[in-house]
Amino acid sequence: MDSNTTFLFDVSDIDASLVEETIREVYDSLDEKGYNAINQIVGYLISGDPGYISSYNDSRKKICKLERNQIVETLLRNYIKDANIRS
Fold this sequence. Notes:
With about 90 residues, the chain is an all-alpha fold. The protein has four helices and no strands.
């Protein structure tokens, strides 16, 4: 490694990965418990009330570690990317 080279580190990639992994885990746990996972996550995102998320598998604790706007931003970016919509 050359000491004169500057490397760029993009924290947003790590944040997006963390959000995606957390949402996947929370979704799976809610689904496993028989909840409509989409409705429960949307309820949480809209209201901010963690009561929409079960504590099963520490799901509530996991999702509360993230900022709701960070979750919405990641979901929207993934949707736009997957739908081939230009931003």
